[in-house]
Amino acid sequence: MSETQHFEGRCHCGAVQFSANADLANVISCNCSICSKHGLILTFVPADRFTLAAGEDTLKDYQFNTMRIRHRFCGNCGVEPFAEGAMPDGTPMRAINVRCLDGVDIAALSPTPVDGRSR
Q: Which PANTHER family match (predicted)?
């Protein structure tokens, strides 16, 4: 059963801190170049269910390919806690790196493989 929960998260050094209301029943593991190199496991939430609590001034931005997703990473430790983009209907969204969420047992998740490499 799917359930939205409140999560706190942060980068490795703690400079970037955020919270989000997310459902971890449908996380993905994408094989595109950036997700595979970073080892990302992602969940997606509307932007209004995400709050950046600290670190806006520390965040760096990386875009590639279609330039539609802003991969945000900590300028201190280099970890990408989230990305910014839009859902197919244009709704602003955040792609959250589940590995950055506090208290989540990654081994208990069942990420759905996504073929981002072929897109």
A: CENP-V_GFA DOMAIN-CONTAINING PROTEIN (PTHR28620:SF1), CENTROMERE PROTEIN V (PTHR28620)
Domain boundaries, the chain: 5-112
pLDDT in tens, 83-113: 999 988 999 999 999 999 999 999 999 999 9
Q: Which CATH number fits domain 5-112: 3.60.60.10, 2.170.150.70, 3.90.1150.10, 1.20.1560.10?
A: 2.170.150.70
CA distance 97 to 38: 10
Considering only CA atoms, which of 101, 91, 75, 80 is closest in space to residue 35? 80
Condensed to tens digits (0 to 9), the pLDDT of residues 29-52 reads 999 999 999 999 999 999 999 999
> Strand runs (DSSP E) across 23-111, as ranges?
28-30, 42-46, 50-54, 59-62, 70-74, 82-86, 92-97
The identity of residue 93, as a single letter, is M
Name the helix (H) or strand (E) containing 19: strand 17-22
